Amino acid sequence: MNSVCPLCQQPHSQHFCADKRRAYFQCMQCFLVFADRTTLLTAEQEKAQYDLHQNQLDDPGYRKFLSRLALPLLSVLRPEQNTGLDFGCGPGPLLAHILREAGKQMQIWDPFYAPEPTSLQQKYHFVSCTEAIEHFINPAKEWHLWLNLLLPGGVLALMTKRYIDQSSFRYWHYKNDPTHISFFHQRTFEFLAQRDKLDLEFPADDVVIFKKRNT
């Protein structure tokens, strides 16, 4: 097992816990908890799991859920910040639809459902990613991509559940999804904000907003 942290690249991580499926390791620098990368699903198995999701554009419950991110995101955007990318949109890109309703010009990208390379060749005022970052095998790759996609003063809005401590992690339902392999603590996001000189807000327990500084 390679114990290099897949987010901050710190070379040594410690065993955190294990269940029937896999072991989990914790980075002592950024506090990311990550599943043993030798136990991951194949891409075909992963997509089969996502195909089971029933995320319909006309589902009021799903719209309410995504509003947990959409509303605080819209509240921090300046009127002229109108171009956005919904990264990891899944088969039902409702968040992009909600943001278009609010007057934003949206692009979408997803490795399985919207693998459009031109979406990753532009610059944006904001990038959103809801319930996807926990699926990333090498989250450092996506993190640096997002920072490159954002214009100065841009906003990165993420939704993912945060773990609290080791004892609660052991019984946490969130880790039982076989496609969930990267888990973030509040301190993880604080580390990223400090390292990369970003402003940081936590508008909800599962929502994080970063602001890229102009200089």
TrEMBL record:
Return the InterPro entries for the record.
SAM-dependent_MTases_sf
Q: Name one GO molecular function term.
A: methyltransferase activity
Q: Which Pfam families match?
A: Methyltransf_23
Q: Might you name a Gene Ontology BP term for this protein?
A: methylation
Keywords noted in UniProt: Methyltransferase, Transferase
Q: So which domain of life are we looking at?
A: Bacteria
Residue ranges crossing the lipid bilayer per the database entry: none
Report the protein name in the record. Class I SAM-dependent methyltransferase
Which species does the entry assign this protein to?
Answer: Rheinheimera mesophila
